[in-house]
Amino acid sequence: MDIKVCKFGGTSMASGNVILSAAKIVESDAQRRYVVVSAPGKRFSGDIKVTDLLYQCSDEVESGDIAAFKETFGKIRVRFTNIEKEIGKPLHIEDGLNEAEQEILNGAGRDYCASRGEFLAAKIMAAVLDVPFVDATEFVRFDENGLLDQNKTFALGAEVLKQYSRAVIPGFYGLGANGKVKTFSRGGGDISGSIVARSVMANLYENWTDVSGFYVCDPRIVNSPKWIPELTYQELRELSYMGANVLHSESIFPVRSAGIPIRICNTFRPEDAGTYIVKNSTRDIRDYVVTGIAGKKDFTSITLEKSLMNAEVGFVEKVLSVIGKRGISFEHLPSGIDTMSLVIDNEYLKGGVLQELIDEFTAAVHPDKVYAHENIALIATVGHGMAKNVGTSARLFKALSEAGINVNMIDQGSSELNIIVGVENKDYADCLKAIYNEFFSE
Ligand code: ASP
Fold this sequence. Notes:
The protein has helices at residues 16-27, 50-62, 66-87, 93-105, 110-129, 150-161, 189-199, 233-241, 252-256, 315-325, 353-365, 385-388, 392-402, 428-440; strands at 4-8, 32-37, 167-170, 173-175, 181-183, 204-209, 230-232, 262-266, 275-278, 292-305, 339-345, 369-382, 409-412, 418-424. It is an alpha/beta fold. The protein has 2 domains: 4-281, Acetylglutamate kinase-like (Carbamate kinase, 3-Layer(aba) Sandwich), CATH 3.40.1160.10; 292-440, VC0802-like, CATH 3.30.2130.10. Helix 1 (16-27) links the parallel strand 1 and strand 2 (32-37). It is globular, with a radius of gyration of 24 Å.
């Protein structure tokens, strides 16, 4: 029998009633044998995710404010006991809550604390479905550098999960190299779902969320954008990295080598087709040029100019070692014969770091000139069709010039899968709209 792994995100686990809907989805298809869950998320706008409350708990314990911790943990208690009431079946969630509270107070650490939302949510889903609970710490392993140890994880995952014909597994965490609970980055439950799919060699990884798949562009910026029926892993990676946040950008790695497709589905509209994410596109390349457009604001480009830079062996290496020593990564590195720019997320440059970097670059490579351009937004136009359709970049830049948008930076991936432009933050929305209208309005 084919195997489907279902991952339910925070909004699909937000209340008892939604959990019951999710359980119905699982029960409607016997192939849905492994279920991965997130912690309860927002029920309405302005609500607080359980994971956010847990991070707050961790901060409060660390700062020694136990009264504040108790109050915040009390809110988590209410969320879970309400879920239990709505489900209308004894789930013994009180015991799990007491244990978690005690462990956090005993200094179990920030990642342990953050992981308890998923742990308790999985206990609930397992009880609702009457299916065994398997803890993610039994097989998800991180290495010394804090990265997922794929080989160990898939081997252990296959070994552990083959003992169960059905199971519910908490997302978002595993075991670090030090033997303690370790979490992925935020939204990492999507990666856990992918790990389980890879471990059991599923035929499909269904990611159940609160939207019916990917849209060509952010619906908050472009009114009712077109829906994307199918994306390749590569296109997904480009779009999700650049801000299309339906799925964690690292979720494709576990399933990619096995070619397991991912389907994005909507728990609140289960009949919708969703978006399929596949290894090779089945779409006719003549039918579309661009697959999707995504972007992020708040970057800075630091430009270094020096005559004969191209002939100076080791120039780039010295520049990169300045940021490397500080643990700063760059997004793009556009370069000319005598110039190079580093495009860096503003997050890294707060508290005077930008000026310090400029000083360190000056000392390391003695440029003729070094300057920063702040408040840049990056917009990626992505699609396999771009390389095959002549004149794509001409259309894109004509659209931007007609919209009066000044482009500060251009970076085209060598696979021609994307064209990234840097514009002023203030032009971000207009830039997305101009590109969308050029390629998608009939
Ligand atoms: N609960 C975690 C978060 O809020 C992980 C997840 O939902 O995937 O980031």
